[in-house]
């Protein structure tokens, strides 16, 4: 299970909300159980806190994931992703990626200057700094989640619609795309919940079987809670199920328990 927290952050890009309402705020917390069938491979969390960065009020969002039990002994994963997001503009100022995946490690900090559209990438592992240009309204992997929750309207979205956005990851610009598949009432740990279903388009190759190997179910309410994530990987099928949450900005709509 090589990409525990990466999967969750990619899937997070699908959680959409209209611009009139703030979908999240200080204290929001999600915890996911990542599993192959009944076997728990690990846990991942997303946590939001108020803070300041260079005199600006921001949300500090941290995504953290690690393997547990036998999975930890077979292939240890400990991934730490962080983003500092402007509260009003919904743009990232800093992105941190510190990972250890079976001995494969990275320790990168990216600082975004949206005035010059330059990203300063500090590779702490190799003590290297480089500068890259990025297009307007570019997001990092975490900030994209929260940007889309606040800015995009799902009330009028139609089955088959495609959503696109600019993203910068490590040292590369790319277009992120996802497709709206429809609606479904999903049986969750909390009860039956109305959901929206999305399919992100991802690169096939080392991790994923094909471009359409991910499916995400999110709550069809003002929170847009990620409830279930399913990925068909090169080594089998992986699921991430929401087990805990707190600090929601809106009521969570449960049909039945």
From TrEMBL:
N-terminal signal peptide: 1-19
Keyword Signal: yes
Entry keyword set: Signal
UniProt-listed InterPro entries: DUF3108
Classification via Pfam families: DUF3108
Recorded superkingdom: Bacteria
Name under which the protein is recorded: DUF3108 domain-containing protein
Top-level taxonomy: Bacteria, Pseudomonadati, Bacteroidota, Flavobacteriia, Flavobacteriales
């Amino acid at each position: 299970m090589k990409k525990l927290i990466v999967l969750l952050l990619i899937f997070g890009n699908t959680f959409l909300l209209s611009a009139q309402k703030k979908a999240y705020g200080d204290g929001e917390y999600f915890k996911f159980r990542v599993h192959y069938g009944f076997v728990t491979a690990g846990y991942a969390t997303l946590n939001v806190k108020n803070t300041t960065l260079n005199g600006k009020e921001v949300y500090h969002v941290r995504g953290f994931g690690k393997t547990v039990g036998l999975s930890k002994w077979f292939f240890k994963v400990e991934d730490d992703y962080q983003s500092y997001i402007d509260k009003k503009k919904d743009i990232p100022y800093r992105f941190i990626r510190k990972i250890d995946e079976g001995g494969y490690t990275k320790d990168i900090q990216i600082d975004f200057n949206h005035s010059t559209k330059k990203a300063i990438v500090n590779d702490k592992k190799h003590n290297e700094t480089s500068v890259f240009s990025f297009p307007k309204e570019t997001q990092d992997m975490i900030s994209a989640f929260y940007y889309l929750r606040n800015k995009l309207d799902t009330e009028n979205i139609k089955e088959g619609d495609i959503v696109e956005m600019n993203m910068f990851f490590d040292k590369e610009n790319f277009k992120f795309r996802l497709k709206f598949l429809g609606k479904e009432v999903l049986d969750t740990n909390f009860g039956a919940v109305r959901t929206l279903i999305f399919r992100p388009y991802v690169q096939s190759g080392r991790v994923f079987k094909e471009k359409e190997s991910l499916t995400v179910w999110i709550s069809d309410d003002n929170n847009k809670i990620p409830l279930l994530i399913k990925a068909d990987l090169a080594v089998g099928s992986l699921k991430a199920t929401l087990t805990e949450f707190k600090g929601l900005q809106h009521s969570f709509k449960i049909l039945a328990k």
